[in-house]
């Protein structure tokens, strides 16, 4: 019934849109006084999702959104993911800061990073499998525009992007010197400088160079400057007699803070807890910034000042050449070497939030019982940095809670090569392309280390030790070691490589002056060869379980087996590498296919439709990451597009099916892993457009209305009762309105966003309420060179939750009064001054 209502609403919306378009066209044609309205609108040429050279938006058979650099400067996105909020059909979770955010297409569950989306630079995937892709791709003035297609031909013309291609197109060299420089200042201690400059080297060669450098404390400050670094890009362009050669290089060296869920209360109307600011608070801070973790691969240190660090070097070459006789050739290749080292303090499940007085109770916690059994006395809390005892745990920071957390360090070092070679024959009525896309990845190292620690519940918390004291409060022994409860709580090491070869063909045929049809097929073979180091594990993941047992830490014990000191936590590692590597290989073969049409009624209005089915290949990570094969997206869509000087709009009806999706959770009591495979179904409508009834006013809008549900669970499985649940973390309703008042000297605008109700978990146990966000901005054109931009985000300081607590598994019900969730960033402002020549 719910799906029927959504489908009815979607169809009605699309029909109303079409009727309005016809009305607008009729009004335009009947108004002889309006020469502008009678003229054919300027058609925007797009290069993404098509193999034709001069395909316009109106003629395109795909749903497409474009944003140029001026619009990006005006909207001042906080991150690359934030810039994608202008694309309908995408659910953007940009609450993680500048990097490692989540973008989910057309009914896919939230929290899936960029799965099913191919993020590209200049027509090539940034990374084949999209792993940590937004730490490599950064938006700055060197980006000329981006084009985003939803569905369409993306499954044919790219890998691992059956739901969408988002292509960031950079500035190329010019024969006329030009450029732009910009300085941006944020009210959260951020200063960013960036620029792009282009010009001739000689008659044949030209260049475009630029980048950014930024330092800042972050909207959620952690007591140190963890956001610092930037990137530099260089493009060299060579004009050829019958084509063009573009050579590119990019260097990225940047550090960012990764924001994680924080404790909140009252899920129905979320608010902060004493000691934790929901708008600007973080459980990162100077006292937890350097955590040492004893592992079988040496001492690993989590360093929050290093933060989420990426170091990348990229080289590319793109040759386009006309061969004559309607034939053309293109070879676009890129090599990337990157090292990513995320340093973060992750929250645990909601059950990790416990009252401090309870955490000291030996009847409830076996580790405390073991402490008192060995040393006697009474259990107390002490600040790890000073050894000072906590006087009143019940009133600690006004909330009386402690929490276990995991100080985690990951090292991922990877080489990546991608080459797309295509041959096209194009004439007035047909464009036929055949090509090969090759991608290769070598994972030199992917290691994940984590130590479990104990902290207060407050902004920039302090580490806590659990100690045994005598009647005079003299410390007799320590359960934890400088806040560390469990060394090597996480320990994983992987290495390997994969390569993918795709053969594709795509044909676009102009049947007559109104009708175009197209179709394409891609066949891919992906080969994986991965090794994992064996791990011996001991003990439970549940806080309070005994710390005795596991692999002894070297030097922890005397020759006779007695402890060398009075600290229990530094005796054993929970997980220990064996030094024995297990190897698995797998070859996956998949095909993708599509067919579409576009029918243009005239220069203003067209309709388009498509059916497609494509795959998302597994990530190169561990021997378990590819055993279940590829996931598949199948969809149908039909849309209408209207373009005129007064109103440009599109409406797209869609139905999608994601198949072979895996969800899993680890039982905190037993350590057993539970996995379930599902389908998700989504039916809905996407709207976007801009309405300009007067030269002084315009209204932009982006909306997605859908019904996204879980389906396909085996009826005999325990989880079958979840069939019909709403897809977790993804809203069924998103609306974004941007009314703008235009002056001769600039613009003033509002951005209103409505995000509908979602569920944090697979079982729909924790609802995340709907919320509204208002941003304000202005752009002042001082003269033909200088421009001033102002932007205030989240003016009303809304507490909107983008996710609950992924580490609580299938059911994220709040732990009594508190629960973990990640709110959007609190109110913050930026001011930028730019000079263009």
Annotation keywords:
mainly beta, 22-stranded antiparallel β-barrel, five-stranded mixed sheet, 7 helices, 43 strands, 7% helix, disordered N terminus
Descriptive account of the structure:
With about 850 residues, this protein is mainly β. It is about 5% helix and about 55% strand. It has seven helices and 43 strands. The protein has a 22-stranded antiparallel beta barrel. A hairpin with a 2-residue loop joins strand 33 (about 675-695) and strand 34 (about 695-710). The longest helix is centred in the N-terminal third of the chain and has 28 residues, at about 1-30. The N and C termini lie far apart (about 60 Å). The model is unreliable at about 1-40 (pLDDT under 50).
Structure summary:
This protein is mainly β and 837 residues long.
Topology:
Elements: H1 2-29, H2 35-38, E1 63-68, H3 69-75, H4 80-83, E2 90-93, E3 102-105, E4 117-121, E5 124-125, E6 143-150, H5 154-157, E7 164-170, E8 178-186, E9 190-200, E10 205-216, E11 227-240, E12 243-256, E13 262-265, E14 271-272, E15 290-295, E16 298-303, E17 308-324, E18 327-347, E19 353-355, H6 356-359, H7 366-375, E20 378-383, E21 401-426, E22 430-456, E23 464-469, E24 475-478, E25 484-510, E26 515-537, E27 551-552, E28 572-573, E29 575-600, E30 605-616, E31 631-643, E32 647-666, E33 673-694, E34 697-711, E35 733-743, E36 746-755, E37 758-759, E38 767-768, E39 771-781, E40 786-793, E41 801-803, E42 818-823, E43 828-836
Parallel strand pairs: 4-7
Antiparallel strand pairs: 1-6, 2-3, 4-5, 6-7, 8-9, 8-43, 9-10, 10-11, 11-12, 12-17, 13-14, 13-42, 15-16, 17-18, 18-21, 19-21, 20-23, 21-22, 22-25, 23-24, 25-26, 26-29, 27-28, 29-30, 30-31, 31-32, 32-33, 33-34, 34-35, 35-36, 36-39, 37-38, 39-40, 40-43, 41-42
